[in-house]
Amino acid sequence: MARRRALVLITEGASPDLIDRWGPALLPSFHRIRDQGAAGPMRAEVVPYEPPGLFSAFTGRNPAEHGCFSYWAVHTPDYRPLTLDGTASRHPFLWQREEFADRTVAVVNVFGTHPVRPVNGYCIGYPMRGTVHACHPRDLPIRLAHEGIRPVHDVTVWFTGGPKDTFVADVLNADRQRAEATFAMLDGKLGDVPDLAVLNLTAIDRLSHVYWQELEAGSTVAEADLAVLKAYRLADEVLGRLLDRVDETTSLLTFSEIGFGPLRAYCSVNDVLAAAGLLSLRPDGGPDWEHTTAFESVQGSQGVNVNLAGRYKHGRVDPADRVRAREDVQAVIRAAVNPHTGLPLADAVPREEVYDGPALDNAPDLVLVPADRRYLPLGDPFWSGRTNRRLQSGWHRHESVWAGAGPAFAPGSTRAARTVDVAPTIADMLGVGVAAEFEGTVLGGAR
Questions:
Q1: Is the pLDDT score of 57 beyond 80?
Q2: Is-contact 375 340, C-beta < 8 A?
Q3: Exposed e or buried b per residue across 350-361, where buried means at least 16 C-beta atoms within 10 angstroms of its C-beta
Q4: Please, what are the domains in the chain?
Q5: Which InterPro entries does the UniProt record give (predicted)?
Q6: Can you tell me the distance from the alpha carbon of 297 to that of 128, in angstroms, rounded to the nearest whole number?
Q7: How many CA atoms lie within 13 Å of 397's alpha carbon, on the beta-carbon side?
Q8: pLDDT tens digits, residue range 3-30?
């Protein structure tokens, strides 16, 4: 029997509304795979954010199982969120499992692949900090440079309010270099052709955060100059090149773990807590931890933490009083008014009503559900300031898309998907037995 191959393209931040808006004339490959293969909506995790979504996709487990709720740890003793990496997950990624030991892989730009571990093939990691070791094998950058390819890491291309043309060009170039690196691997220019290739394109997400306002009613930006459209067209080009490689042994899955939509403002939940006397501030504006009951958790986790004794250096809430304190916080947030609209700000839900699994303690004590997703919790001020959140005009949504083509997918089939469906689907694409512990189900429907 011929060896099966799997191609996986992540178009991070893709919005089904925009794919429909621009149609097959501008995005022929997005529409081609949807019309010729299997397709459907994809639902993000409880909080639509890249790290929990990607960990769920490639471990086949939900966040309370794998333990990752953001780019940063939700709870740290000194209150300063710790940047996470691949060591945060309680479960291995798909290609690290024993069943895949004889499959060669190429994994490019997936959060959680740093620190880079040896793989049977190639890996261009996703470092969240400066490093000289972000690839496997270690000489991969040199080998790619001989092909004229110089991949760029995501955190080196970050919006700080500079000129549009420069930033857009840098973001698009980063995706283009990642794509060319992947095609060099698939063409056998670096050695063995991988059985599984996973490429994560992030330009749609990066440019949607900053230039979503160009897409809204009243915008005077010409269609040819829309930054977000340029990202979609690049992704569409890469998708088309991958579609051309689909044959009787090769299947292609494309998906996004998050969708996208407009953002009007971030709202400081810490301000709400301070007004209610649940968070005290020092004269310099920083939290007075010894007199604070609760505080906003890091961005992406979208929650509030109780300042629990034993968990934090200056925790003041006795564990026996945790539930009562949480109820007090919950009541304050539920009564809070969005200062921009005069309407309710958010609901606050105990984490055990949202998540279920052995890593539940990694989640915030209360999960915030915005009443209007155009107005979102700001998140821990240490990192929200450093990531320039207040410069954004768009943010993630739960609704995105997936599509598949090739022998693993039944043409014309349609079904809704969750991120945890990705791992068993890839296993099926490769003809590897689907592990019983995966929480998701196979999307293809062809076998």
A1: yes
A2: yes
A3: ebeebbebebee
A4: 5-261+397-430 (3.40.720.10), 265-391 (no CATH)
A5: Alkaline_phosphatase_core_sf (IPR017850), Phosphodiest/P_Trfase (IPR002591)
A6: 19
A7: 20
A8: 899 999 999 999 999 999 999 999 999 9
